[in-house]
Amino acid sequence: MKTMISNLPSELVEEILSRVPVKSMGAVRSTCKTWNSLSKDTSFTNKQIGKASAAREKEFVMIKKYSSVYLVSVNLYETHNNNNNNFDLSINRRGQLVTRKTSYQVCNISQVIYCDGLLLCVYRQINNSFVVWNPYWGQRRWIKHQKCIDMFAFGYEKPYRQHKNLDIEYGKPSVSLKGNTYWYARGVESRSFFLLCFDFTRERFGPRLALPFDSNVDCDLCLSKVREERLAVLMRRLDTLEMEIWVTNKIEPDEVSWSNFLKVDHMKLLTCFSVLTNFFIEEEKKIAVVFGEGYKRFEACMVGENGYFKRVDLRESADIQLYPFSYAL
Questions:
Q1: Which pLDDT band holds residue 95 (cuts at 50, 70, 90)?
Q2: Residue 107 in contact with residue 124, Cβ under 8 Å?
Q3: What is the pLDDT confidence band of residue 254, given thresholds at 50, 70 and 90?
Q4: Where is each F-box domain found (predicted)?
Q5: Edge-to-edge strands of the sheet including 193-199?
Q6: Structural domains in the chain plus CATH codes
Q7: CA nearest to 325, candidates 135, 145, 137
Q8: Percent of the chain surpassing pLDDT 90
């Protein structure tokens, strides 16, 4: 006698569906109302994301120059164990956020922010409109903004996770973590770098937070995060070209402590980028994937302990330029 899947215990159905790849969840949600409701349950989502993490597959965002946003993925485990030191990496596109077009030109994406599973994409040519995209559910919501502001912060109020955006006339990229937004900044008089947080629950800025290195040196900085738990900062000195990555042990709007994750001083990485754009880290393998703009194309470099280094080609073509934003989804 055959057993219909609808007759299986709910716990078993949840376990089966949690093994479905995220890219195939659209078919699951469209099968029936029960599965659609299950796919939106927080515990189910966490279970599925946990299984995807165990498979060592990372997803991040790429921007097609001036127009579209793509969700792409890379298997870091396979990449790390590839014996070639210079190889091409096949980028698997998971989905695309379709852009709106004006009567004159394709819209220019000026900013992308990731927060709690949502992407906020800001467009310059549509009266400063922005769209909130849920890649997991495949849903989009366009919002028209009244002011002509070029930079936004995106977070949520605790404990109800009521999402909010903040208009800010400040040009540095932000990172959303635990509902709050963090920037690095530099004092006008002191010329020292520091970290600054906006608390969306209390709707106010916190005090200046110390960075874990000499904040007076000239350097390139990038912020990233380790899942939804910790903040990471990459610092590349402009005088010695040494690169350091630090990760927070504790991070709150008014308090922070750090531990060193990786220090790199070999010239392969330090000279392959003219501009650093973003990065993320893999704690288990103790490696960092650093994205940047080189002199001819966009690439990623994987670096680790004991001189480990691999260059990853992002396969730029003549009609597409990809700007990476390494948000682990």
A1: low
A2: yes
A3: very high
A4: 2-48
A5: 175-177, 180-186, 193-199, 204-205
A6: 7-45 (no CATH), 56-325 (2.130.10)
A7: 135
A8: 16
Handedness of CA 48, 51, 55, 59 (dihedral sign): positive
Query: Which of 199 and 158 is assigned the larger pLDDT?
Result: 199
Which of 25-45 are b and which e, b meaning 16 or more Cβ less than 10 Å from the residue's Cβ?
A: beeebeeeeebeebbeeeebb
Q: Are 91 and 130 in contact (CB under 8 A)?
A: no
Q: Which of 267, 306, 266, 269 is nearest to 291 (CA)?
A: 269
Handedness of CA 182, 171, 317, 102 (dihedral sign): positive
> How far is it, in rounded angstroms, from Cα 324 to Cα 70?
10
Instruction: State the virtual CA torsion across 70, 229, 110, 119 in degrees, nearest 10.
Output: 50
Q: Are 280 and 247 in contact (CB under 8 A)?
A: no
Both structure tokens of 118 = 């949502």
Provide the token pair at 248: 């927070």
Q: What gap in Å lies between CA 138 and CA 25, rounded to an integer?
A: 9
CB contact at 8 A, 95 and 118: no
Both tokens assigned to 82: 């590839």
